[in-house]
Write a structure and sequence with these properties.
With 81 residues, this protein is α+β, with helices and mostly antiparallel strands. The chain contains 2 helices and 4 strands. It starts with 11 loop residues before the first strand and ends with a helix.
Amino acid sequence: MSANRESVTIPIFPCRSIDEQLEFYQVLGFELTYRQAKSNLYACVRHRIVELHFFVWKQLDPSASYSMCYVHVRDVDAVHK
């Protein structure tokens, strides 16, 4: 994340499994920046355009979850490369 920003918003999402969540985002090119095992499972990943945090919520029903975050980029092809 840019150190020049005055402020930053980082979404924190629930997930059922930190391992599955991290595997998914690392395949997309995100880097693991933090992982907490105790007392609560928590992890952070970062891509050059966004940072995302996750916590475990075992009762989460993904099909009924409305957790979301919209990330707008000017040039999605450049981000993909």
